[in-house]
Structures are given as structure tokens and as C-alpha cells.
Amino acid sequence: MSRLSPQEAGGANVCAFLDMLAWSEIGPRLLAESDDGYNVNVGSTPAHPILFHDYSKHPRLYQAEVNSDAAGRYQFMGRYWAHYQALLNLPDFGPKSQDRYAIQLLRECGALPHVLAGGWLAANEIVTAISRAAPIWASLPGAGYGQHENKLTNLLTEFADKLDVYAPRPDGVEFVGG
Question: Which residues of 87-124 are buried (b: 16+ CB within 10 A; e: fewer)?
Fold first, then answer.
């Protein structure tokens, strides 16, 4: 789960969307076998997790087989870390800093207003948010990075499951999107 509270993140929808992103990028098994994904390096698998334990900075552990040094719950590239750390005045690469960084990326790609507008009665807004965020996160449908992309229906199910934790589903409401 997001280490930011809904109040710190900007609402239950934001926390649920962050959790959905982590599920998409890291996968449920690896999330369970790590610090909820916050300490995962690119190239990790549940059978062979590559974890870091120092949150003071981005680990920048380059994996040649995937040509990347992505790390953390949202798989941030090392080359961008210093910019966002300064921009957001982040103290470290710890969980709350990673959550704030991800929210900033959602803001920049235009997904955040749709995340905020989405929810139990507006699944179409979450579909739009996922589409807007796809150029940033390779695991989202339509990202086009040549990596595994999760299905929209699975992402919407994950979002609804997480939203139910932060803001329980009203009686009789079905979350339908896509």
C-alpha cells in the first residue's frame, strides 16, 4: 500500500491508483516478497528478487539485459532522480518520496485530474488516467516499450480492489470501465 495517507496523497483515488501502478510494474508476488516494491530493482523476479536496502539515494544498479537502472515501487529511471528530488525537495529515495515522485509524474502527464475525478461512479476517468500515464509506465496498455503490458480490465479490477480499501464501495455500486 502507498505509504502516503489519502490526505497526504490528495485522496483515496490517488492512493488506489498508486497501488494499481505498483501492481502493474512490480507484480503481486514481488510486491509481497519485498518492501511492497519500494526496494525493487529492474530485472527482479519473484524467484530472483534484486533488492536494495539503502533508501538514501536511487540505487542506479544498471541491468544490461534490460538496458535500464529503474528502481523502486514505480520503477523510476536513475537519470531523472536528481531532478525530481530537487524539484519536490525529497529527502531520500524512501517510500514516501517515491509516492510523491509518482504523483508528480501523474500531474505532468495530465493523468492526475482524471485520477481525482475517477472512482466508484466514474471508471471512465480511470481509463483515461491509465492512457495518459502509459507513456511513463511500460507495463500500462499502449505504452509501446516492447515490454509486457497489463490488460486494462485487470488494471481496473486492481484499482477497484485497492479503492475498496481506502474508500469502501457504496452499496449497490458496480465499478465498470473500459
Answer: eeebeebbbbbbbbbbbebbeebebbebbbebbbebbe
